[in-house]
UniProtKB/TrEMBL annotation:
Belongs to the metallo-dependent hydrolases superfamily. Adenosine and AMP deaminases family. Adenosine deaminase subfamily. This is Adenosine deaminase. The active site is at 203 (proton donor). One of its GO terms (biological process) is hypoxanthine salvage. Binds 1 zinc ion per subunit. It catalyses: adenosine + H2O + H(+) = inosine + NH4(+); 2'-deoxyadenosine + H2O + H(+) = 2'-deoxyinosine + NH4(+). Its cofactor is Zn(2+). Keywords: Hydrolase, Metal-binding, Nucleotide metabolism, Zinc. InterPro entries: A_deaminase, A_deaminase_dom, Ado/ade_deaminase, Metal_Hydrolase. GO terms for cellular component: cytosol. Zn(2+) binds at residues 16, 18, 200, 292. GO terms for molecular function: 2'-deoxyadenosine deaminase activity; adenosine deaminase activity; zinc ion binding. It comes from Ilumatobacter coccineus (strain NBRC 103263 / KCTC 29153 / YM16-304).
Amino acid sequence: MTSAELIKRAPKALLHDHLDGGLRPETVVELAAEYGYDGLPTTDVTELGQWFNKGAKRNDLVLYLETFAHTGAVMQHRDAIERVAYECAQDLAADGVVYAEIRFAPELHLEAGLTLDEVVETVTAGFRRGSEGTDLTIYGILSAMRQAARSFEIAELAIRHRDKGVVGFDIAGPEAGFPPTRHLDAFQLVNRENFHATIHAGEAFGLPSIWEAVQFCGAERLGHGVRLIDDITVDDDGEATLGQLATYIRDRRIPLEVCPTSNVNTGVAPTIAEHPIGLLRRLRFRVTLNTDNRLMSDTSMTNEMVECCEAFGWGLDDLQWLTVNAVKSAFAPFPERIKIIDGIVKPRYAMLKAEQQLGV
Ligand SMILES: O=c1[nH]cnc2c1ncn2[C@@H]1O[C@H](CO)[C@@H](O)[C@H]1O
Ligand SMILES: [Zn+2]
């Protein structure tokens, strides 16, 4: 059994985490006071943390997304946004994360007069300050809200900030009713510019969303993607048969940014033990493990790893496999990925495995 203490020290890579879903509860309270936001349900830090988590655990993505109104409300000013980004980097580094891509939607941070470019500059500055002197490499991904109509502009914004801390483009928000092809022009721009895109698909909606994301929009990775199991049948002997889409995604090694706790919150799976990640890992899809929203889902990379080890009997080998998968699938340039895998991930897992064998 791999202990939580050992897992905490293991190197981790995180490809799917929302900046406005990862604030410290105390920061939400402090920023609300500082900027005069009086809409919080409580200003007691413990109660507020619990309130966000209760709001998340309602078995529905649209309900899950409701409480982001409060974190968005306190992230409208430069100093507030910089602080949130700084703390995000610090919290991830303290959790053993060595590589992270954190996404945010610039269009949600304009209420006090910041421009889209200023929002991006502020977040990336916070990431730089927060990761300084740590082992963490951290980048931004820009999400456009799929129910809105600014995706082309956000794709242009992301491309403008490539090589300045932004490595990709995404669409987020309610999935049902807002298919990826609604934003086809944005994805075509990203592809034309040789830039990177991931798409939230196969979370609250099924195969058509995944199919459009990959085959029409050219997504390199899938945010969640777990509804792929609708294209997989498993017989009584555990023998799996894959449909054409699942086959394609496994053959092409398309990375899945799987977020187990968030999916249990939104009702995709009743428990972690019943979550598709177990099957997807067994079938050797390119699975990565992620937090999605550390505040709302009350989680961390360490917690996701501990939960999966408990549910599926995974150990350090599995955690290393997930971590290497994630760094391989990163949007950072190839030489950087190699450096992180060979220079940090592999040697540290080797050390931890030796420690575990010795029982120290
Ligand atoms: O799991 C998710 N699925 C879809 N959208 C999400 C998820 N988590 C957060 N957001 C949405 O992304 C925005 C930018 O970060 C958040 O404000 C939230 O509305
Ligand atoms: Zn997400």
